[in-house]
Every structure is written in C-alpha cells, then in structure tokens.
C-alpha cells in the first residue's frame, strides 16, 4: 500500500486500566521535569565551556544539582504582586503558560506501538495515547501557551511587559504558519497525522533525508516559537528590561522559566518524531543489531536525539547574537513563509506524480522544468525592475525648516538641514581679541563703525 494511502491502526490505545494511565502520565511529567533540570545545568556548563569559564560546580557532584537549588530558592523568595496589576489574570498567566507545555508530550511515542512492554505485569505501549489528528493537537496546545505570555504582559499594568507580550504574539503568528507548512509536507509523505504512524513510515528512510527543507524550516521556527536566542525578543533585556515577566517574582517567575524549557523539550521531541525517525535506532546500529528497536532500547535512542537537539538550542545561544525585531519579522514573513509555501507545493506535486505512477526520471524532469521556469520569470522581472529604477529621475530634496513647529525637530529621510554659518576657530578668536592684522570684521557692528569706515 502506498504511504500516501496509509491508514492509522490505533486499536492498541485506550485499553490500559486507569491506574496504568496514571503511571504513564506521571512518567511523562517526570520525564519533562528531569530533562528540564538537566538541560538548565547542561546549558550553563556548555556556555561556560564556550566562554572559557567553569560554570556551576558547587551543588551536587559536578554542580548537577544547581538547577534544583535555583528552583528551591525561587519558591522561597517573596512573592510580590504589583499594585496596578489585574490580580486574577496576573496570577493565572503563569499557569496558562506552563500547563500547555506539558500537554503535547501525551501523544509523543517513546517506542513502537506494536512492541508492547510489561509494566507491573500488564502489556502496554510506550506512549500515553495517540490520535488520528495528533499533530493538530500539538499545534493547538502550543498555540494556547502564547496566551499566558500575552496575558502576563497585559495584566502587569506596566509598559515594558506589555510590549514584550505583544512581541511574543506577533512572533508566534509570524512563525506558526511556516511551522504548519513544514508539518504539512510530512503529512503528505506519511499519509497520516498520527505520531505513531509517522514514525512507522520512516522505517526505510528518515524524513530528514526526504524532506530536508521542511526540517530546516521547522528547526528555525521551533527556535522562534520557544522565544530562544537569537529570537528572544519578548525577553529582550536591552530594550524591554526583562520583557513580559518583568513584574513577576518567586514561583510565578519560575513557572515562566519552566514553560520555556519544557517547550524546548517538547519541540525537540516533535522534531525527533517527524524527521529523525522517532524512537528508531540510527542506521549503523540498526544495521547490525536486530534488537535495537525492541524492548526498552527505543527509549534510549529517543532520549539521545532529544538531547542532541537541546544541545543545538544551547549552541545557538552561545554563538549568535540577538537579532533586531525588524529582522525577526522579515525572516518570518519574507523568507520562511514564501519558502515553506513553494516547498509545500513542490512536495504535493511530487506526491501526486508518484500516485499517478510516474517514474523518478519523469518527476525529476517536471520538477526541474518548473524550477527553471520560475527562475526565468524572476530574472525577467528583475531586469525590468532595474530598468525602471534607472529611468526614474531623482527628485529634488524637500526643503526643511527645523523650527517649523515652533520647536527643533530632526529632518525626515530625503530632507537636508540648512547650512550652518562657519564658526571662527580658536586662533581667529585670539587674533580678534589681540587686534591682529589677520582678522577682519564680517561687517559693521553699529552705525559708528560704519561712519568710521
């Protein structure tokens, strides 16, 4: 059967007793929390290594308990509520930001659906649950989390948190569309939105090889979605003091930090599921070891891939500076969105030709012909645009009066300041005072000097 026509077999889900569902839910929560605690220490260690510093080395062996100590410290700090805040929304915002971050992990497979493991004598899958539209569920809960940031900025009653919240909303809108287009390419190839089915369809070849552009698009958008450097504009301390969480302290501030790192783990797990084969062992291992994808081993490969993507987050933070806000918007709307749309149409065309039983050579010729036609049209448009620019006569700069409104104003683009009279140099002023011969009056100062002349 063609992968495009594959149907989901979700009959193995929904058969667990209630207590086993609770155990699996607690495991998913614990997995996220432990990964977050480790990621915080790992980030500080890796960035310190990049900057030739030591990093945390006091709490626990090699400083591994530093993030746990920071969490306890934040919980014991004074919880300050600003006077102008909308208290209900102010308290609710961190909760709205944190809870959706934990929800997406429910549909991520840690192991094959057909390879059931034994937990307290019961056979079950290594996944909490799955849905025919599991990826739409992930997109939905990821979109809800942004409300927490926006409400935090609005409810604080302060200017800079409000600007940070608005930046986060604009950033989410700019990058969510390109992320959805990257997902759609995977849906076209796998024929399903179920996470377990998508991983099953990567048995022969991972989608990072079949859909490299989709993988690159998702990597860029997932960094923008999580508000991480170099796209951490909502928390830009250079111009917003601290962003949407400026007025938060104690456990509420800790919830925002927790939501950020949990979102990092979630998007890394989604990238692993969609493009890196999910729980499947890498090729060199799966090639000579038949049991690599059975038992509890798939969970190891899944965790290793997630940690590698988390290292990519840390690497970006230690390498790239923060972009400007206009560069952030330009990348989302003028680069990622057009590229994702063109790539999606290209993938859809290839899948349609494959379903019509066209050979690989014919598909390559059709795709190459379409790309050449687009490039030719773009070249012709650029040629005519350059000719039109050369034919334009430069307009005379508009006059500028710096005191037109009664107070000094700077010139607009295209306007020039009037020439400023040349000031006498220090040497000339000394000659004037001494009555030197090299100085000459610019003109008569009064009637007497005029008559003397």
TrEMBL record:
Designated gene of the protein: nuoH
Keywords, comma-separated and alphabetical: Cell membrane, Membrane, NAD, Oxidoreductase, Quinone, Translocase, Transmembrane, Transmembrane helix, Ubiquinone
Root EC class: translocase
E.C. number: 7.1.1.-
Stretches with biased composition (Basic and acidic residues): 443-453
Organism of derivation: Streptomyces roseirectus
Protein name: NADH-quinone oxidoreductase subunit H
Gene Ontology CC terms, in alphabetical order: plasma membrane
GO molecular function, one term: NADH dehydrogenase activity
């Amino acid at each position: 059967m063609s992968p495009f026509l594959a149907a989901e077999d979700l009959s193995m889900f929904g058969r667990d007793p209630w207590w086993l569902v609770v155990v699996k839910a607690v495991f998913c929560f614990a997995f996220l929390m432990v990964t977050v605690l480790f990621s915080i220490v790992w980030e500080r260690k890796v960035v310190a290594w990049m900057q030739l510093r030591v990093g945390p080395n006091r709490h626990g062996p090699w400083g591994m308990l530093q993030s746990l100590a920071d969490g306890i410290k934040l919980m014991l700090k004074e919880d300050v509520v600003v006077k102008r805040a909308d208290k209900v929304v102010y308290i609710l915002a961190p909760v709205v930001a944190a809870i959706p971050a934990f929800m997406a992990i429910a549909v991520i497979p840690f192991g094959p659906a057909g390879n059931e493991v034994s937990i307290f004598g019961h056979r079950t899958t290594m996944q909490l649950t799955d849905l025919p539209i599991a990826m739409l569920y992930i997109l939905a809960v990821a979109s809800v989390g942004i409300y927490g940031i926006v409400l935090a900025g609005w409810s604080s009653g302060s200017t800079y948190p409000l600007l940070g919240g608005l930046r986060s909303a604009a950033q989410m809108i700019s990058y969510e569309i390109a992320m959805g287009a990257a997902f759609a390419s995977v849906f076209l190839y796998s024929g399903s939105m179920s996470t377990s089915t998508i991983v099953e369809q990567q048995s022969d070849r991972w989608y990072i090889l079949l859909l490299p552009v989709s993988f690159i698009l998702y990597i860029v958008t997932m960094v923008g979605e999580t508000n991480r450097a170099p796209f951490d504009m909502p928390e830009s301390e250079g111009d917003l003091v601290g962003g949407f969480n400026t007025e938060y302290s104690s456990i509420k501030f800790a919830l925002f930090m927790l939501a950020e790192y949990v979102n990092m783990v979630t998007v890394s797990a989604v990238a692993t599921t969609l493009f890196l084969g999910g729980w499947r062992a890498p090729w060199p291992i799966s090639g000579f070891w038949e049991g690599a994808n059975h038992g509890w081993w798939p969970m190891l490969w899944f965790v290793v891939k997630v940690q590698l993507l988390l290292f990519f987050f840390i690497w970006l933070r230690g390498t790239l500076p923060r972009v400007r806000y206009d560069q952030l918007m330009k990348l989302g709307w003028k680069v990622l969105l057009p590229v994702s749309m063109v790539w999606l149409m290209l993938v859809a065309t290839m899948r349609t030709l494959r379903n019509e039983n066209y050979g690989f050579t014919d598909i390559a010729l059709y795709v190459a012909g379409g790309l050449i036609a687009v490039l030719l049209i773009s070249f012709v448009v650029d040629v005519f645009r350059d000719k039109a620019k050369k034919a334009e006569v430069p307009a005379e700069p508009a006059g500028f009066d710096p005191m037109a409104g009664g107070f000094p104003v700077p010139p607009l683009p295209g306007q020039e300041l009037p020439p400023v009279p040349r000031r006498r140099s220090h040497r000339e002023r000394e000659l004037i005072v001494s009555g030197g011969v090299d100085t000459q009056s610019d003109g008569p100062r009064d009637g007497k000097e005029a008559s003397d002349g």
